[in-house]
Amino acid sequence: MVDRSNLDKNTIIMADRGYESYNVLAHIQEKGWKYIIIKMFIVNLQESKQKKFYPMWFRVVRFKITDDTYETVITNLDADAFSSEELKKLYHMRWGIETSFRELKYALGLISFHAKKVEYIIQEVFARLVMYNLCEMITLHVVVQQKPTKNEYQVNFTVAIHIYKKFFRDENVHPPEVEVLIRKNILPVREDRKNPRRIKFKKAGFNQDKRLEVYF
Asked: What's the predicted TM-score (pTM) here?
C-alpha cells in the first residue's frame, strides 16, 4: 500500500498499534516519508538469525497524556524540530479520525456488508461515507442550548446517526423534527476524561398526531 501511494515526501504517517513492524517502517523510509506510530512492541534485532540487516533509525518518545498515564510512540521526525510536546499535539490530531472510523464501523454498520460482489460492497462503503458526511454537516448546524454547569454540551453523534436513518426511512419525518430530536440527546464535553462515559438514552417522542416516536 505504501509503495502504490502517490503522496510526495512532505508526508507524515500517523498509525495506531499493530503497524510498528520493521517491514512497514522500511517501506515508509524508502518513500522518504516521516511517521509517528503508537508503539506496542519492538522485536530485538540482535536476536535475529538473519545475516543481512536493513539500516534504519527512529526514536522512541514517551509523553504524559493524563496525570497517571503515558503514551509511547516511535518516530523518525527530527528531535530538534519536533519535541515531545509537538509529538503530543500531533498524536491528539488523529483522535477525530479514530472517532470517525468508530461511527462508520458501528453506528453506520460498516463492520458488515449485505452484498457479496466486490462492486456492490464498494457501493455500500460509499453509501455509508455519504451518510456520515451528511450527518456531520447537519449536526454542525444544530444549536445546542448550554446548561448552567461547568461543562459545555455537544450533540450525541451516535444517536444523531440513528435519527437520520429514521428520517430517510420515514416520509412523515420532517427536518425541523429531526433537529428537535437531536437536541434532546446531548453529552457534556469533558477534556482529559479518565473514566468511560456512561450514556443514557432518552425516550424522544413528539408530534401530537403521534406520527413519529423514536426510542433510544
From this structure: 0.60
